[in-house]
Amino acid sequence: MIRRTIILGIAALLAVQAIGQSEAAMNQFIDNLMAKMTLREKIGQLNLNSIGRNSTGTFQNSDAEQKIKAGDLGGILNVCGAEAVREYQKLAVKQSRLGIPLLTGLDVVHGYKTILPIPLAQACSWDTAAICRGAEVAAEECTADGINWNYSPMVDVSAEIRWGRVAEGNGEDPFLSGIIAATLVKGYQGNEPGQYRLLSCVKHYAGYGASEAGRDYNMVDISRVMLYNRYLNPYKAAVKAGVGSVMSSFNLIEGESSTQNKWLLTDVLRDQWGFKGFLVTDYGTINENVRNGMGTQYETAVNAFNAGTDMDMCCDAFVKHLAEAVKRGDVKESDIDTACRRVLVAKYKLGLFRDPYKFCRPKDYKRVVYSKEHREVARQLAAESFVLLRNEGNLLPLSKNQKIALIGPLGDSKRNLIGCWSANDEPDSYISLYQAMQEAVKGHGSVTCAQGSNVSDNTEVNKAVGYRGRAISVGDNDQLKNEALRLAREADVIVCAMGEGSEMTGESASLANPQLGGPQRRLLEALLQLHKPLVLLNFAGRPTIMKWESEHVPAILQVWFGGSEAGAAICDVLFGDKVPTGKLVNTFPQQLGQVPMYYNHISTGRPVSETNKGFKRYSSNYIDVTNAPVYPFGYGLSYTTYHYSAPTLSAPEMSLDGKVTASVTVTNTGQRDGDEIVQLYIHDLAAHIARPVRELKGFRRIHLKAGESQTVQFELDRSLLEYFDREGNAQLEPGEVKIYIGPNSRDTQETSLMLR
Ligand code: BGC
Questions:
Q1: Separation of 86 CA from ligand 1 center, angstroms?
Q2: Distance 108 CA to ligand 1 centre (A)
Q3: What's the predicted TM-score (pTM) here?
Q4: What residues are annotated to the active site?
Q5: What does the buried/exposed string (b/e) look like for 393-428 if buried means 16 or more CB atoms within 10 Å of the residue's CB?
Q6: Which one of 51, 53, 151, 216 would you pick to mutate in the ligand 1 pocket, going by the greatest count of ligand atoms within 8 A of its CB?
Q7: Spatial distance between the Cα atoms of 125 and 128, rounded to a whole number of angstroms
Q8: What secondary structure letter does DSSP report for 116?
Q9: DSSP E strands: which ranges in 15-153?
Q10: 389-431 per-position pLDDT tens digit
Q11: Cβ of residue 507 lying under 6 Å from some atom of ligand 1
């Protein structure tokens, strides 16, 4: 009898689980719950407050406990730690009338405690498997420490290098960014249908990457054609990958706040793309719309809601005004039901109704956080993200058997290795570059270290470096330089660790001069006068203006901000244990005056080639600088070399609905095994809306042993070739499409495809 009861019990459990996962069961559960909810409680689910120790905006919310108990809060953000989150969940579950658990959000932008390279750097790996594993690592750590909702990926396409938030995105290309967006969403959320391992939130929808003059929070004005073709693809890719939530952006678009733009939030996102999740504002935007002169808080709340916003981040504006708006007939109650349901669906898919404390697992957290495996993932991804920009006379890799002088403000500043949006790092758990280099050369050579200079002559810049406890000491530049020169004179080789501090990029970190700070540049010039081998490690969260460096410094490795394992990863590449494979995802301009500069620009009727040396009157160029970048999109050297054959097509013609295969044979012609990123671009020459001169439409990361060859194939069809008109309708006309294949966007060979 007992046995039978147990078996029946297990069967019932399994059945409940099976039903529990089905959509019908979910809908029924939510119907039942919503039938018990008052209008106020439904609106409460649409309210999100920032509390806890780290604010990510200009203010924090208060009285969250009271709001939770009253059912006036659906989620919180910026509270971390299993115990702290458990206390808030307890309030919601035990002390609110219906016991609905909370969403607990955070910006886990590039790792939680084990910090991965900044997203811009990760993108330079072009390695979707490694990027996905990185997202899983972030999810494994944060979901054991209380977090169930992640404000990532950030997919704002941007060529505006003054804008600090370039660091958080995937560069200037919509196709690559779309692939990475989908990869990250799956890495966070997992692949179980109807379930989220961690709820992902793609942001900032849309166009934020085009902030005028690169000043953060500034207005944006983009035509719909440009939006559809250049900016929207990564969000769409995230939606297609099943992202559970979307965050609208701070910026205006067509003179309207994104948060109130019905065309963007409803017509495109929901009606054209079929987005089923919920949509949240960015931090405090409903109030900012009052400041934008768009009416009272009542009006901006109602307008945001009616445009398609489901959740209000930090303004408490929905809980203040929506009930009244329903009474006045300004908002439909059925729309509130829809929004509330979307939030409850997310909670259901996270499994919060089954176990509200599911994300509070201190034991698991202890086991996974900074685990050997997680550190290895971060180290490998960091090494793959570095881009070798110059290597005269094969100066790199360096031998460990020599005296090395490590010079520069980033050499021994470990908290500046990791990059913006890493407020949760635990500095005791990782080491500086200097420490990593000492470990790497132990038993072989030696390394000495000097700061050498301040980051900048500008006191505001030096102060900004120090944000969130990341200060680099500010001293007398001459004294610092003399000490550095003394060490450099005694060394065989000089490694310069220079560039930006971590907090010089990210939110609210625009720079009018994105180049090496004055004292660093003067120090670099003095060090070069010693005529010793010199390597520049350029730390940056954005493309740097570095024409002078590209002409005078023999070896340059772009190391971005590589996360908590950056020190060891830099040594892996510097000393040749790993071969550099990264390729740029942004164009590096010669001068700021060329910005925004991006490889996939639209054609002009008076084009001037990048290789043109002089100025051409009545043509599209500058008198004082050529149209060439310093380094083009897709560029990156290695310790080995590759030869590309001319590309071929399986057929010279294709019907509009047909398929064609483009092939290229790549040979590793150097001495080292390596990974090469093979890139395919197109130029549509028969479109009624002007198309970019090059557009990335395919890439493969391949491994080639020294001497080995591989033929890489790309299948081309309508879905890759088409573009969009101003209504978002896909277009493709008969005519010629140029196909380019090569190691970057510039050094390609071409063939031609005729569409019939
Ligand atoms: C940022 C978002 C972030 C949010 C919550 C805002 O200031 O723009 O990217 O997700 O804060 O922290």
A1: 23
A2: 11
A3: 0.96
A4: 282
A5: eeebbbebeeebbbbbbbbbbbbbbbbbbbbbbeee
A6: 151
A7: 8
A8: P
A9: 47-50, 75-77, 103-106, 149-150
A10: 999 999 999 999 999 999 999 999 999 999 999 988 999 999 9
A11: yes
